[in-house]
Amino acid sequence: MFQSRLDELKALLDRAEFTTRLGAIDADDALEMSYSMLSQLKEVRGRVFVIGNGGSAGLASHFCTDLMRTLGIGATTFSDSNILTCFANDFGYENVYKMPLERTLRPEDLLVSISSSGASPNIIEATRFAKSKRIATITLSGFEEDNPLRELGELNIWLGSHDYGLVESGHFFLLHTLIDSYSACRKKLQSFAKFID
To answer: Is 0.85 topped by the overall pTM?
Structure first.
């Protein structure tokens, strides 16, 4: 059972798709594009905002910790229960991320949006807001190939499965890969300005 599950995860990651507004790119180019976005953000002292629901909220919090500890990049998530319950109660759950972002995002910041389904209304609303303000965005999603979140980022990472556990585990692996390989690959950074212009 364990080996077959591990094989499923490996096969899912092997089939991962990476897209920009200009079309598909390969995994190595997606990593380098991520490095470039983070390096530019670090130079201008920008902040990474990371959003997700449920297990993806846990990934968001973990990724923020890794960004701050390992890469020295400021990072924030809005998973504090006071923030979530206040905005959900007063403005509706679809606005629990959008409205705090309206109050905090700056042009030099980056948004990372995580949704296994790619169809969570609160994640979509927040990501659309960031896009309207020309904030660079990375999305991680799964389930349907044409999910709405996958259309919104400068870089979109999609895992083609409806299995929550596999999609979340795949997202976790990909985010850790970004953190763990960033320092080693900084010398190989290439400009991806054409994608995030």
So the answer is: yes
Q: What is the CATH number of the domain that holds 112?
A: 3.40.50.10490
Full strand arrangement of the beta sheet holding 110-115:
23-25, 17-20, 155-159, 136-142, 110-115, 47-51, 74-76
Within a domain: residue 14?
A: no
> Phi first, then psi: what are they for 50, rounded to 5°?
-125, 130
**Does 1 or 44 have the greater pLDDT score?**
44
Q: Find how far residue 180's CA is from the centre of its chain.
A: 16
Closest alpha carbon to 138 in 161, 123, 157, 117: 157
Split into its structural domains, the chain has a count of 1
